[in-house]
Write a sequence for this structure.
């Protein structure tokens, strides 16, 4: 194991994370001070309602969408309504966070790799709402996961003073730093024991059924395991070679926008106490089915629509034809 590289990765990931999180947390605090969170909760209440979640949790989702699950977890720790949620509701909340987190950064990465931003937003937000609606109705009809959820994050008591808020945020940031170190160490072990090769073998049949070529499997492994942010450079580099057809680029990027960073992101949202079967198993099945249906629908579109509506000029026009 290359410990020097591991330490370097921890520093890079932590810096990239905290330089986004800390300003965002301050902005969220300012919004709460002026009552913007109440206005936002009212604006999102129809969406929260169809997902069977309290409107007060809207600030968690919007924070996660703008930043990442870490920031969403911190905000969640300060909301009293979290204590009353059951496992089913926590699973819905965690699933939506997984589908829609870090949109500004990850939409731009996808755009740079060749998929138009409006498509990425539609797939992730639309897919997230649809998946959570299905789950909410399923839990309502069956009564599954109605037991109280067990939250594993330190409660940050609401304090009107900035000093109290600052102390709470520092505590949570320290916790996140520890999680980053443990997770990256764990990921390195998985690479050393050959998990990437195993995942390539497991993903191959699903990629073929979605009419995605084998050449795109490397992108799939990087995206599913490491995430769009962590593996963004490799994703863009592989696409720029022009060796991957635009259909494969489109399909695999849509797929990993819904299913990426399965180790790290899943571990983070599990702190909320959801069902692992839902946030991992259901997420995979839903992502596969949705992208399969999308790929079937777009296969027959003429080339000019592909270039004008689905993909952009970052994918060479003759990609995959050499």
């Amino acid at each position: 194991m290359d410990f020097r590289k591991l330490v370097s990765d921890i520093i890079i990931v932590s810096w990239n994370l905290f330089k986004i999180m800390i300003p965002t947390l301050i902005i969220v605090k300012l919004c709460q001070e002026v009552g913007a969170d109440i206005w936002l909760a009212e604006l999102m209440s129809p969406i929260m309602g169809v997902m069977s979640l309290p409107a007060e949790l809207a600030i968690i989702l919007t924070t996660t969408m703008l930043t990442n699950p870490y920031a969403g977890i911190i905000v969640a720790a300060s909301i009293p309504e979290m204590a009353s949620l059951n496992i089913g509701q926590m699973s819905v909340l965690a699933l939506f966070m997984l589908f829609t987190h870090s949109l500004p950064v990850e939409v731009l990465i996808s755009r740079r790799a060749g998929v138009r931003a409006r498509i990425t937003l539609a797939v992730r937000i639309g897919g997230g709402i649809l998946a959570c609606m299905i789950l909410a109705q399923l839990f309502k009809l069956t009564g599954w996961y109605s037991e109280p959820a067990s939250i594993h994050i330190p409660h940050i008591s609401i304090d009107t003073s900035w000093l109290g808020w600052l102390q709470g945020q520092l505590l949570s940031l320290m916790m996140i730093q520890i999680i980053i170190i443990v997770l990256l160490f764990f990921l390195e072990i998985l690479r050393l024991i050959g998990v990437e090769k195993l995942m390539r073998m497991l993903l191959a049949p699903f990629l073929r059924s979605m009419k995605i070529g084998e050449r795109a499997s490397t992108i799939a492994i990087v995206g599913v395991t490491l995430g769009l942010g962590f593996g963004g450079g490799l994703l863009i580099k592989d696409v720029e070679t022009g060796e991957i057809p635009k259909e494969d680029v489109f399909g695999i990027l849509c797929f990993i926008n819904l299913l990426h960073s399965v180790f790290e992101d899943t571990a983070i949202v599990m702190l909320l106490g959801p069902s692992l079967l839902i946030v991992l198993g259901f997420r995979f099945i839903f992502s596969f089915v949705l992208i399969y249906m999308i790929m079937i629908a777009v296969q027959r579109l003429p080339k000019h629509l592909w270039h004008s509506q689905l993909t952009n000029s970052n994918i060479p026009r003759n990609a995959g034809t050499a």
